[in-house]
Amino acid sequence: xxxxxxxxxxxxxxxxxxxxxxxxxxxxxxxxxxxxxxxxxxxxxxxxxxxxxxxxxxxxxxxxxxxxxxxxxxxxxxxxxxxxxxxxxxxxxxxxxxxxxxxxxxxxxxxxxxxxxxxxxxxxxxxxxxxxxxxxxxxxxxxxxxxxxxxxxxxxxxxxxxxxxxxxxxxxxxxxxxxxxxxxxxxxxxxxxxxxxxxxxxxxxxxxxxxxxxxxxxxxxxxxxxxxxxxxxxxxxxxxxxxxxxxxxxxxxxxxxxxxxxxxxxxxxxxxxxxxxxxxxxxxxxxxxxxxxxxxxxxxxxxxxxxxxxxxxxxxxxxxxxxxxxxxxxxxxxxxxxxxx
Length: 341
Ligand code: SAM
Ligand code: SF4
Ligand code: SF4
What we know:
Layout: E1 18-22, H1 55-69, E2 73-77, H2 87-95, E3 102-107, H3 112-122, E4 126-130, H4 136-143, H5 149-161, E5 165-172, H6 181-191, E6 194-199, H7 217-227, E7 230-232, E8 243-247, E9 253-257, E10 270-273, E11 278-280, E12 289-290, H8 291-296, H9 301-313, H10 319-324, H11 336-339
Helix pairs in contact: 1-2, 2-3, 3-5
Bound molecules: S-adenosylmethionine and iron/sulfur cluster (2 copies).
Catalytic activity: GTP + AH2 + S-adenosyl-L-methionine = (8S)-3',8-cyclo-7,8-dihydroguanosine 5'-triphosphate + 5'-deoxyadenosine + L-methionine + A + H(+)
Pfam families: Mob_synth_C, Radical_SAM
EC number: 4.1.99.22
C-alpha cells in the first residue's frame, strides 16, 4: 500500500479521490442529449490524434494522481472510449500502477463484442453500459444513428461472458422514454444487473436542456412504487454518486444519479481529464487547466504534481447545487463528449 500521499482538499474541504479520463471526443452514436446529430454532423471537427494525450502521457499522469494524491479509482470514458484504437493497451499500462485498485469504463457497448475479452485480460474490472430503452424505435431515435437495441445487448452479454462487472445507465427524459422505465427495470432485475437512472442534465450547450424535460428521482420512485416497490439502501462509501435502492421483494437493486433534483456537489471528489489533457474540476466547467502543455514542455513530475495540487486547492465548483437554487445556468460549458461523463 502506498502511504506517502499528499492528500489535497479543495476550498470546500472535498478531497481528490477519483479520476475520470476522456480518451477521445469521437463517438459512433449521436445521442440527442449528448452529441445531437445536427450539431455533430459530417463537418464537425474532432480533435486530430496529435492533440490527444498519448497512452504514455495518460499513463504518466494517472501514475502521478495515484502515487501523489492517493487516487484509487480511474474511470475511462469519452466520447466513446472504444473508438480509440488499442484501448486494451492503455488498460494494461494502468493496471501496473501500484495502488490503483479499480479501473472501470463507461461505454455505449457497441464494440464490446470485439474488445471485452482483451479488456478483461488487460485488467479492466467493470463496465457501465449506456442503454436508454428496450424499444427499438425509441432507442434508434435517441441514439441518432438508428442502431438497434440488440447491438447493445450483445455488448452487455460479451462483458458478462468474460467476467466484467456490469451496470447499466439510462438517461430518462420526459416525453421521450419514461415509458421505458419499468420495462428496463424488469428486464435488468431478471438479468441480475444494476440499472441506474440518470437525470437529464444540462451538460454542454447543445442539447437544448429544459428543467421541464427532467424526470426526477422522485418521479421514478413513484412509478416504481405502483408496481415494483423499492426502498433506499445505505451508500457503499462516502461520495458514492448513485443513490442505491433495492427491490422490496429482496431481489435486485437500482440506482439514481440525481444531479438535478438532489445535487451531490458536497461530496464530489472527482477530477476529470479531457481528451487533450486539460484538468477539469467540474462536469459543468467552461475551462480546464492545460496539463498537456506541462507534459509536452518537459516539466518534471514534481512540477506537474504542484500544478495539480494548486488547481485542486483552488476548486470551489458546485454547479448543480447552484442550479438548484437557480443561481446559474451557464451558457459556456464544455461538451460532455469532450470532458467525459
Ligand atoms: N459513450 C459512452 C457512453 O455513452 O456510455 C461514454 C461517454 S457518455 C458521455 C457517459 C455517460 O453520460 C453515458 O451514460 C450517458 O448516457 C451520459 N450522458 C450523456 N449526456 C448526458 C446528459 N445530457 N444528461 C445525463 N447523462 C448524460
Ligand atoms: Fe456517444 Fe456516449 Fe454521448 Fe451517446 S452518450 S453520444 S454514446 S458519448
Ligand atoms: Fe461535482 Fe460539478 Fe457535478 Fe457538483 S456539478 S457534483 S461539483 S461535477
